[in-house]
Amino acid sequence: MQTAILLFDRFTALDAVGPFEILSRLPGAETVFVAAGPGPVRNDQGNLALVADRSLAEVTGPDLVLVPGGPGRRAAMKDDTVLDWLRAVDATSTWTTSVCTGSLVVAAAGLLTGRRATCHWLALDDLREFAAEPAQERVVFDGKYVTAAGVSSGIDMALALVGRIAGDRAARTVQLLTEYDPQPPYDAGSPAKAPADIVAHYRERRPSSRISET
Questions:
Q1: DSSP 8-class letter at 11
Q2: Exposed, middle or buried by CB within 10 Å (0-12, 13-18, 19+), for 196?
Q3: Is 119 a catalytic site residue?
Q4: Residue 64 pairs with which residues in a beta bridge?
Q5: Residues 43/69, Cβ–Cβ less than 8 Å
Q6: How many alpha carbons lie under 13 Å from residue 190 in its C-beta half-sphere?
Q7: For 150, which of 70, 120, 146, 176 could close a Cys bridge (C-beta 3.0–4.6 Å)?
Q8: Distance CA 181, CA 193 (A)
Q9: Distance of CA 195 to the CA centre of its chain
Q10: Long-range contacts: 196-199, Cβ < 8 Å, 24+?
């Protein structure tokens, strides 16, 4: 089973790396990072790079496609090479997935029209521009399309996919081996739980906020 994780300049690292750590443990997994061309691709802070081993043109039939989010998604949403590739691989993929604002890239390719999908909470309503139905959930399955909310939720999505693909025992095994047992010191991981003043602050400064573009 081949999983292709798309990289583009200024992607959010955990969007890609979190699911990679989980999905790469599937039996018989082949996980490849792909980009317009092979080579290093910088994250949204410019201080970390992942290496795309293959170009988009070299990966034509992955079983699972994953699109991360990040500020660079704005350019990706207008990049015909990226959008054409997504449409082409989606035609034969078993799963087409995204993390955070990566769902907006998938939506820009016309793949989420009329479907329920999620996104980072600051960009959730942007899905409406592409005729998708925003769902305020951590992980959303709609047919073969699977979207995860902000950043860390990509791990939950990947684990859910392992369960769908290889069964509950395999998913529990991966969860154990990665010791994925979250016990955060704070309970502020969603706008429904975070202090109202923090939520309001980021909603108000969304157009210029770096986190709003995650």
A1: B
A2: exposed
A3: no
A4: 3, 95
A5: no
A6: 9
A7: 120
A8: 20
A9: 26
A10: none
Query: 152-185, pLDDT tens digit by residue?
Result: 999 999 999 999 999 999 999 999 999 999 999 9
For residue 2, list its beta bridge partners: 30
| Residue listed under structure tokens 């054409």 | 84
CA distance linking residue 203 with residue 111, whole number of Å: 27
Phi, psi of 145 (to 5 degrees): -95, 125
**pTM score > 0.85 for this model?**
yes
- According to the model, what pLDDT value does residue 208 have? 44
Is the Cβ–Cβ distance between 64 and 3 less than 8 Å? yes
Which pLDDT does position 8 carry in this prediction? 98
Residue 23 · residue 154 · CB < 8 Å: no
Distance CA(130)–CA(124), nearest Å, equals: 12
Q: How confident is the model at residue 211 (pLDDT cuts 50, 70, 90)?
A: very low
Annotated catalytic residue, options 34, 100, 112, 124: 100
- Listed as own residue / partner, the contacts of 123-131 with beta carbons closer than 8 Å and 24 or more positions apart are 123/212, 123/213, 126/101, 127/103, 130/104
- Note the pLDDT of residue 49: 98
Structure tokens at 18: 């979190």
DSSP 25: T
Which pLDDT belongs to residue 15?
98
Name the 3-class secondary structure at 76.
Answer: helix
Q: What's the token pair of residue 136?
A: 């305020």
**pLDDT, tens digit (0-9, with 9 covering 90-100), for 55-82:** 999 999 999 999 999 999 999 999 999 9
> To which residue do tokens 């980009």 refer?
35
